[in-house]
Amino acid sequence: MVMATVWKQLKHHPALIPLFIFIGGGAAMSALYLGRLALKNPECSWDRTGNPEPWNKVDPNHQYKMFAVNMDYSKLKKDRPDF
């Protein structure tokens, strides 16, 4: 019912089509980024029995950030103890 109304409005006002495209694309990209943060970030623990502290198993040269300014992860040394 709602989609039929939206479709009629888009047929009547075609200038709204880019608005729907960009809003939908932004919503999709933000949902994908939120999913990436939830699944790939070492601070998130989904398996509490198998790996309760995943941040202890991250290598110092492992890049988990999407964007790092002036950071060369290959030259980092381990500065924390093993648990």
Written account of the structure:
The protein is mainly alpha-helical and 83 residues long. It has 2 helices and no strands. It has helices at residues 2-12, 17-40. The longest helix is centred in the middle third of the chain and has 24 residues, at 17-40. The protein is elongated.
Total domains, how many? 1
- What percentage of residues falls in helices of 4 or more residues? 40-55%
Order of helices and strands: HH
Beginning-to-end CA distance, first to last residue: 58 Å
Number of distinct beta strands: 0
Q: What is the CA-atom radius of gyration, in angstroms?
A: 22 Å
> Uncertain spans, ≥5 residues at pLDDT below 50?
none
Largest sheet: none
Shape: elongated
Residue fraction in strands = under 5%
Number of helices: 2
Name the structural class: mainly alpha
Report mean pLDDT, rounded to a whole number: 80
Structural key phrases:
transport, mainly alpha, 2 helices, B12D, mitochondrion inner membrane, respiratory chain, 83 residues
Short description:
With 83 residues, the protein is an all-alpha fold. The chain has one domain (1-75).
List the helices and strands and how they pair.
Layout: H1 2-12, H2 17-40
